[in-house]
Amino acid sequence: MAKRENKRKVELDFQKEAERQKRKERAIKKAKEVIEEKEINENIIEGRNPVLEAFESKITVEKILVSKGDTKGSIIKVMSIAKEKGIPVIEVDRRKLDEISNTPNHQGVVAYITPYRYVEVADILKIAEDREEKPFVLILDEIQDPHNLGSIIRTAELSGVHGVIIPKRRSIGVNTTVFKTSAGAVNHMAIAKVTNLARVIDELKDAGIFVYGADMEGDSKSYNTNFEGGVGLVIGNEGKGISRLVREKCDGIVSIPMVGKVNSLNASVAAGILMYEVMKTRIAGKK
């Protein structure tokens, strides 16, 4: 009898633990979904090193919020530099930082910054018109790594891109890391943030722009593609690539030939290769 009771107790404990684990997994999944759906507040920078980097960039830091009583380690340096620069430092409850930050990794410090000024898609087309050039537009479909975005913007500025278009949700925007990685190119590149990429692609097509998506399963190789005329180049997410709806909106899908054993490229590298293919076509057309 005792053995049966012990066995039953073990089974119940196992079931309870399994159910507890399932609840935990559901809670984590729900939290991730909330973060993904949340529109990122680009008026803040969070984390000790990012805030310290912001002090050295062209970003204007308006005020600093620090967790009350948290005055150890690099947070002292943050507060000291802020004081030297005349930036207000406000101590708040840590729960306040949890509420306003974009991620749970604020490390007890959040900086409010002067937001980056985005443009409209029409402004990008006007830039091409003023230069008397066919539009060359880069469309980034949910790029989430700020280093990738910064590198892409840097190459875009060097290869004659008139403007970059990014979505408002599930995409990194212009922050201190992007500023730093772009090596200042952000200051010379028109960037538009839009609600619906698919709708914008339709608008670009109506303006006579041929939209190409980048994908390993492309209809044509990049070196054989005719990039004359107005060009819209779509670069997809680092992991998922181009979303289904955006892909369906593209006029053509272009692939980059690869001969090695690794069958994929970093998003910024792929973008760079294709941007230079477009630039090469345009340079050749001027001769």
Automatic annotation (TrEMBL):
One of its GO terms (cellular component) is cytosol. Gene3D superfamilies: 3.30.1330.30, 3.40.1280.10. The keyword Transcription does not apply. GO terms for molecular function: RNA binding; RNA methyltransferase activity. One of its GO terms (biological process) is methylation. Transmembrane segments: none annotated. Residues 44-119 form the RNA 2-O ribose methyltransferase substrate binding domain. The keyword Nucleotide-binding does not apply. Keywords: Methyltransferase, Transferase. It holds the Pfam family SpoU_methylase. InterPro entries: Alpha/beta_knot_MTases, Ribosomal_eL30-like_sf, rRNA_MeTrfase_TrmH, SpoU_MeTrfase, SpoU_subst-bd, tRNA_m1G_MTases_N. NCBIfam families: rRNA_methyl_3. Belongs to the class IV-like SAM-binding methyltransferase superfamily. RNA methyltransferase TrmH family. This is 23S rRNA (Guanosine(2251)-2'-O)-methyltransferase RlmB.
